[in-house]
Amino acid sequence: MMRFIEGSLAVSDAVRMCRPDVVSAYPITPQTHIVESLAEMVANCTLDAEYITVESEFSALSACLGAVAAGSRAYSATSSQGLALMFEVCFNLAGMRLPMVMTIANRAISAPLSIWNDQQDSISLRDSGWLQFYAEDNQEAADLHYLAYKVAEDQKILLPAMVCFDGFILSHTYEPVDMPTQEEVDAYLPKFNPCQRLDAKDPISFGMFAFPEYYMEFRYAIDQALQQSREKIREAGKEFKEKFGRDYSALVEGYRLEDAETVLVAMGSLCGTAKDAIDEMRGAGRKVGLLKIRTYRPFPGEEVAAALKGAKRVAVLDKNISLGSKGAVGLEVKDVLYGSGIPVLDYIVGLGGRDMRKRDIERIVTLAEKGEGDLFYGLREEVA
Amino acid sequence: MALSVGCTAKPGKSRGNRTGAWRVFKPAFKHNKCTKCGLCAMVCPEGCIIEQEDEFMIPDYDYCKGCGLCAEECPAEDIEMVKEEK
Amino acid sequence: MKELRIHGRGGQGSVTAAELIATAAFEGGVSAQAFPMFGVERRGAPVQAFVRFADKKIRLRSQVYEPDYIIVQDSTLIADVNVFAGMKKGGIAIVNTAKGGGWTVPPGVRLITVDATGIALETLGVPITNTSLMGAFAAASGEITLEAIENAIRHRFSEELARKNIEAARRAYNLVKGAA
Questions:
Q1: What would the pLDDT profile of C62-77 be if each residue is shown by its tens digit?
Q2: DSSP state of B21
């Protein structure tokens, strides 16, 4: 049913229909509405789950870790400093092969203190072994939760997943979202069936000590699972399309790529603004297209290479910066296109909530056409 | 704001935020029944009620946001919230 | 696509107004989008909220820079913030004030003043002006009907609060309709 709903509440309702057994989270702007709403559902008995209140994000994710190890479906949500505080536990969930889903309402990281959006928080955990999905709009943000649980809990994958959506820009936006029924979600997402779990009658320990002779093999196994998850995401996306009509069978999505000379690459809500800007530029005869990356981990290298092969130049919009290097998406795209001769120009944009307008997209395309890239876009005059 | 190294600031920066702009009601300190107890200054969330030389309290209207806590708490009922025309 | 920018201060209900106006538009069959731009999270700090109306899916996510409509919840903001910035010709500016106005608006912009604080104090007993200004917006813009606003208010508030807010919206609506 089409509902006019705030992004955070679309997400919390999607999570409700995923039937988590345990929810543990600590409120932080701009994620707060999600967990407030879930706490209310538990209190009102519209969600049959344990809501574990904690004193910090570290404890929230630790509670989830224990819950998944005991065989429960767990959920959490956070932003910015909250995710930073979870850093250690994130690696543990992946290393112990404990699948769960966590929503990230993307927000800049201190210092300086900022409550506004960029994607530095989740990007900083790209190496943790979690799957990472980025949503363009609230429809995608809600939908990706059903898909994320399905892929994460697959017996061949068994890894946690982050569904990332831009804080405020999506989390606080009211817009129409098509919400499925509980029956439809149940038909798509089966019950969690852990292959091993904490059981007093048959005790095991998770995350044991690994000597140098073995540690690498465990890390290799996580990487293998992430590599294989691409196919699982495609399968889950195909089934999603059959059941709900919306197509997530590819890890990337092209927009007006036919004969495009300049191709923008972006993740998240910026893709919407870029599409509108592209329509205007196409109207003026400029051959511009967009490649949206929905799945950042695992990185869809082959799909990106195939989508960009006809481009004359590629302009990557990064709402993050690997300080001392370049934007995280830019680096991936440069890697994928290495040897192709296609120039890849990286633009650091929108950090700490700096607004991106259609005209900014157009200006970046103009910069790319002139070969000017690998820069922070739109800096104040004092530093430029 | 200045682009300082490490995003630093000197004390008193928040004085630049003149929170008095948002006010529908303004506390009128009548000083008729006032016993100079100082409770108004203690409960003021902006900390902007200041003791004068004669020990009477006066709010700094640049920062008073019209919350009405002082009027609510005044034991002598000597502070009245009046609608302010701007 | 039409765009509305609401200027207010934290606590005056600007974000709720944007939500309810967009909800009313959506119920009326158009695509809509509402979102806030928070400053510091504190009562009294200047806040902006935005609404877009369109006949197809809205993809644009930037803030609103060239509004067709603005609502100013608190005329004291006009001294601090350029609330009329970027307004389109033919646009409508709705300002809450008990005085008659006297501000210079961009050429081609119609200025409508409403004593929303007065209406809110009489109907609700508190100076929360958003629902009065929603009524004024419906009357001035025609983007949404008074009925759709009443429905949106009914869904959002408890029965007693809804009744009072609907009364506030109606009074401002009739005032603006009567003046037109």
A1: 999 999 999 999 888 8
A2: G
Same-domain check for residues A120 and A184: yes
Flag if A276 and C36 touch (Cβ within 8 Å). no
Q: How far apart are CA B71 and CA B81, in angstroms?
A: 7
Query: In this predicted structure, what is the pLDDT of residue A144?
Result: 98
Residue range C132-158, pLDDT digits in tens: 999 999 999 999 999 999 999 999 999
Contact A44, A85 (CB under 8 A): no
Both A61 and A98 in a single domain? Answer: yes
Give CA A177 to chain center in angstroms. Answer: 18
Which of A195, A225, A244 is the last residue before a domain boundary? Answer: A244
Residue with tokens 């909530």: A353
Secondary-structure percent of chain C, ordered helix, strand, coil, rounded to 5: 40, 20, 40
Structural domain for C174, as ranges = 2-179
Chains that touch B (3 or more CB pairs under 8 A): A, C
C35/A174 Cβ within 8 A: yes
Same domain, A198 and A324: no
Q: Strands (DSSP E) along C14-122, which ranges?
A: 31-37, 46-54, 69-72, 92-96, 110-114
DSSP string, A267-279: -TTHHHHHHHHHH
In terms of domains, do A193 and A282 share one? no
Confidence of residue A294 (pLDDT cuts 50, 70, 90): very high
The pair phi, psi for residue C117, each rounded to 5°, is -65, -45
Please, are residues A188 and A240 in contact by the beta-carbon 8 Å criterion? Answer: yes
pLDDT tens, residue by residue, B60-74: 999 998 889 999 999
Q: SS3 for A142?
A: helix
The CATH number of whichever domain residue A57 belongs to comes to 3.40.50.970
Q: Do B7 and A380 touch (CB under 8 A)?
A: no
Question: CATH for B17-83?
Answer: 3.30.70.20
Map tokens 């700090």 to a residue: C45
- Check if A371 contacts B (Cβ < 8 Å): no
Angle between helices A32-43 and A7-17 (to 10 degrees): 40
> What is the value of pTM for the model shown?
0.94
How far apart are alpha carbons A169 and A272 in whole angstroms?
Answer: 11
How many domains does one find in chain A?
2
